Amino acid sequence: MSQKSDFNDRMLSLGLARVSEAAAIASADLIGRGDEKAADQAAVNAMRQQLNLLDIQGVVVIGEGERDEAPMLYIGEEVGTGNGPAVDIALDPLEGTTLTAKDMPNALTVIAMGPRGSMLHAPDTYMDKLAIGPGYPEGILNLDMTPSERVTALAKARGCSPNDITVCVLERPRHEAIISEIRGTGASIRLITDGDVAGVIHTAEANLTGIDMYMGQGGAPEGVLAAAALKCMGGQMWGRLVFRSDDERARATKAGISDFERVYTRDEMVTEDVIFAATGVTSGSILSGIKREPGWLTTETVLMRSKTGSIRRMSYRHPTGR
After folding, report:
1. 44: three-class secondary structure by DSSP
2. CA 237 → CA 88, 117, 209, distances in Å?
3. Are 103 and 133 found together in one domain?
4. Is the per-residue pLDDT at 5 higher than 70?
């Protein structure tokens, strides 16, 4: 039996939700405390501990960095009991460490799992990203379009004015020209300070979030995680690696990438069916954050399977002090 046919996504999905929940709960005491590193480390430790309880032969392909940079959940680290299917794991134990430290919206714990060899081994570089939600024809947008051309094309596909389009962009100096051009079309912009996995996911539920498109440069590893989410929820995504140094090109070569100009579609970043889980740490437009009451913590988790297109939202009430 092949490794791919062994991937029992239905059985593994609830275990993946527990991994995500554990990381969120571990970071709860550090929300608003101003210590990004401590919050991230707490989430990393909890996620690693829970992953090692799963009956998988897991390899982290998107993680906290290279082995010499991250003591746990580094790229290439093996997790799980060593029994069960061979799987790729992409994770961000705390997407939005700054958001957590400052108690700002949309901090999440995020993890995706697929059969071995199913996920792009994206190096720790930037990626130029473009994403839209489901329901649009293929090929109406591409990364070679200017920002204004993208807005115009999406508005035409929606049958609306560019004034009715909202674009999510990470608030960074490198995006000043993009922001100016988008606003020149009459479209509005939702600026986010961190958390571009959440930014991309917003496009898949535009009727709830009000966001029609995501564009701009962010971390390439986060791009793969976002592609996994869109593979479950529907939507289109494109990504192209951006290199700022020879060291970054060397990282890409080490990860097996030879075409530095390639544009990856969603299904080229994530080639097989995957499962995806995210738990809210601080409240946002996707998930509620951790809620406290005497003796209890309550989390909200979204659990998705691309094979069935199922999206499950779960509330977990966890007793504290045990």
Report:
1. helix
2. 20, 20, 18
3. no
4. no
201 and 263 belong to one structural domain: yes
Q: Do 133 and 239 fall into the same domain?
A: yes
Estimate to the nearest angstrom the gap between the alpha carbon of 100 and the chain centroid: 16
Written as six digits, the tokens of 319 are 């007793």
> Are residues 281 and 299 both part of a single domain?
yes
Q: Got the DSSP string for 44-75?
A: HHHHHHHHTTSSSEEEEEESSS-TTT-SSS-T
CA 73 to chain centre: 16
Same-domain status, 199 and 261: yes
Q: What is the mean pLDDT of residues 213-227?
A: 96
Q: Is the pTM of this model over 0.85?
A: yes
- Percent of the chain predicted with pLDDT > 70: 97
**Rg, Å, the chain Cα set:** 19
Neighbouring CB atoms inside 10 A of 49's CB total: 15
The distance from CA 39 to its chain's CA centroid, rounded to whole angstroms, is 18
